Amino acid sequence: MIWTPRATVAVIVEQNEKYLMVEEIDNGEHRFNQPAGHLEDGETIHQGAIRETLEETGYNVQLTGVIGLYAASAANGTTYHRVCYCADIKDPTPSTELDADIVAVHWLTYEEIKEREAQLRSPMVLACIEDYRDNRRFPLDLIRQL
């Protein structure tokens, strides 16, 4: 049997010391996450990050860097590999059409996110934000689509 991790992307957007976050339903519970999700067949990692942000928040973004690569095993035994980006908003007016499982879009301070730590979708959420806050940035061409 070949082990197959799940390929995911996430995007950190910061404005005025607040982070773009989504509140979503996961197994019947409210969870907080960056705009994030699974890659779709045929799309690049960059395209997936832009698409997920638009679908989950309504904001069209311009990727500005790679924060890091993360791996975590979930309670269900699935291993997730996440590429986390940082980005700027291209259009200040978000679309109102969001994924069905998104309850709300929030702009939260780091302290407000820490207060919700028990409700974060995974440990990767806080790890990505903390790496961003530590100024970890890699150029977009770190990831080459062949």
* Percent helix: 10-25%
> Counting H and I runs of at least 4 residues, what is the number of helices?
3
Query: What are the segments in which pLDDT stays under 50 over at least 5 consecutive residues?
Result: none
Shape: globular
Please outline the major beta sheet.
4 strands, mixed
H/E element order: EEEEEHEEEHH
Strand order of the largest sheet: 5-1-7-6
Helix-strand category? alpha+beta
Distance between the termini: 26 Å
Q: What would you note in describing this structure?
A:
The protein has about 150 residues and is an alpha+beta fold. The protein is built from three helices and eight strands; from the N terminus they run E-E-E-E-E-H-E-E-E-H-H. It has helices spanning about 45-55, 110-115, 125-135; strands at about 5-10, 15, 20-25, 30-35, 35-40, 60-75, 80-90, 100-110. The strands form two sheets. A four-stranded mixed β-sheet has the order 5-1-7-6, sandwiched between helices. It is globular, with a radius of gyration of 14 Å. The model has no long low-confidence stretch (mean pLDDT about 95).
